[in-house]
Design brief:
It is a single chain. The protein has about 300 residues and is α/β, with parallel strands linked by helices. The chain has one domain (about 15-290). About 50% of the residues lie in helices and about 15% in strands.
Length: about 300
């Protein structure tokens, strides 16, 4: 290819990608005009389609479930993974719901348990680390909780600039503040202002600032930031876990009591404690956890790759 012609080719391709993105966003917005039950049914259909098309992600999910649920038979794990893809499809639709549905349509869908635990933790005056995990209900759960209690949210930037702009605008519209994942000062500033900050430490962020702690009995590179942030800020840690109730358009949000004796003196023990909490929440609705993420990509020294 002629290097001089490369910019002339890249520009139209960039505009084409942007056009596809805007078309997808527009279709998602139109979808939210439908009844919620219809939206979720279409989401399940999207998940079934992804099962056949997203072979790489399906492989990642198969590996994760084999590692984390060795006691299940191959047939049981396959059934669980199929259910997970349906949950993924619903999660895509729920993202659109969380961005564009008015509160009056969302409030009847949620049961919130444990709000008193968040209020008690906030009364300490140090803000709250609202500890959660990457479930397929992540976006809708945040929006539903925001209808009951204001909080700030940490997020990871999207590589697609159009999607990133729309996502950020939606989150800033519904949350008091959206904080980039790498903005530690912004996180601590929100806590000093007495705000809860939504935070999920359960993905693979590489070796830096990570230690190997078991997750479902498998050594997983896990960031120690929950321990460090709690120590720096003095903020209590309140676990927050969502659950989609079957295939009906209903959601259960659980706020648990603030962790006692956290942080301790041992960051390994604290990080192990966080993983155990998340694991317990995953076991309550395993199909709704994000199994298509390469959670075990970073391996202990000498261990073979699993993907």
């Amino acid at each position: 290819m002629n290097p001089a012609a490369t910019p002339a080719i890249r520009a139209p391709l960039h505009r084409l990608r942007q056009g596809f993105t805007w078309s997808g966003i527009g279709a998602a917005w139109l979808l939210t005009r439908l009844p919620v039950g219809w939206q979720l049914a279409l989401g399940r259909g999207l998940g079934r389609l992804a099962w056949h098309l997203a072979r790489r992600r399906r492989h990642i999910g198969e590996v994760n479930l084999r590692l984390c649920f060795p006691d299940l038979s191959a047939t049981e794990r396959r059934r669980l993974l199929r259910a997970h893809f349906r949950a993924l499809g619903m999660g895509v639709v729920e993202t659109a719901m969380s961005w564009w549905l008015p509160g009056r349509r969302l409030r009847p869908l949620v049961t919130l348990e444990g709000l008193e635990h968040l209020e008690a933790a906030l009364a300490r005056g140090r803000g709250v680390i609202l500890l959660s995990a990457h479930f397929t209900t992540l976006e809708i759960a945040g929006r539903l909780l925001a209808l009951q209690a204001p909080f700030h949210v940490m997020y990871r930037s999207h590589k697609n600039p159009v999607f990133e702009a729309v996502m950020r605008r939606a989150r800033e519209r519904h949350f008091d503040r959206a904080i980039r994942r790498d903005d530690l000062r912004g996180f601590l500033r929100s806590l000093r202002q007495g705000m809860p900050v939504w935070y999920a430490p359960d993905q693979n962020y590489g070796r830096e600032h990570s230690i190997f702690v078991d997750f479902f009995g498998v050594p997983a590179a896990t960031i120690t930031a929950t321990h460090r942030l709690a120590r720096l800020s003095g903020a209590p840690v309140v676990p927050f876990f969502p659950q989609r109730l079957g295939e009906d358009p209903r959601y259960r949000l659980r706020l648990l009591p603030a962790l006692e004796g956290f942080p301790g003196d041992d960051e390994v023990a604290d990080t192990r404690r966080i993983n155990a909490l998340i694991e317990e929440a995953v076991r309550a609705c395993p199909e709704q956890y994000l199994w298509v993420h390469r959670r075990f990509k970073t391996r202990p020294p000498g261990a073979a790759p699993v993907y």
